[in-house]
């Protein structure tokens, strides 16, 4: 699996992992800033999350309140590698989150450690992201460093962290369409025109990590509001999620905030993608031709 690939202009220092000397994204044949060219055994890759240093500071004066009494030894074992992992290494080598890419042999080793550590982490930290902390502790205990990159996904429109590839989305505003490029040409089942142009179009993240609540112009996408039986052949023919690019673009306006640009991008991609998948599912699996 190639780690570095992309088309369009890369933006922001954290996204230079994909840019050539002129700042243009390219399918690269050599390493950039120390990144390996591809995933192989012993060299996994993942999206960089700011979670490594949190558990590494446990039981130190710098620990967050929930981690003051957290024992790494109870999770990894007394004297194990994770108990002596530095904050720097935890953040720069092991702080991987979705998207994860690894050789199957590495996954077997990681899965065994992760499975064993997960309940131990949750017993001391029964909160959101416990499973992700358990993952980073597992790979640290294996001393299996990950190539951490920021271009694999976007998720939180309000984040100030450089570890999401939002600069690429913001680059769309430099196109002739301006901010409206994040949604122009989108329909209830069709992605925006700029996204569909994979020859001259922008660099884009691999994954839309829809772990937030996206709200604009009377449109909403929230993972907990998606019906659990959406992809099913039983019951009534489902209704497509409502979508109107015109109203989103009208609210976006000519000088939107960064958060508005990002939120509109997510809505103008997530809703058409889910609707398109639903139409395909009902047609190919349920042998139906009509979705309301």
TrEMBL record:
UniProt protein name: Uncharacterized protein
Source species of the chain: Octactis speculum
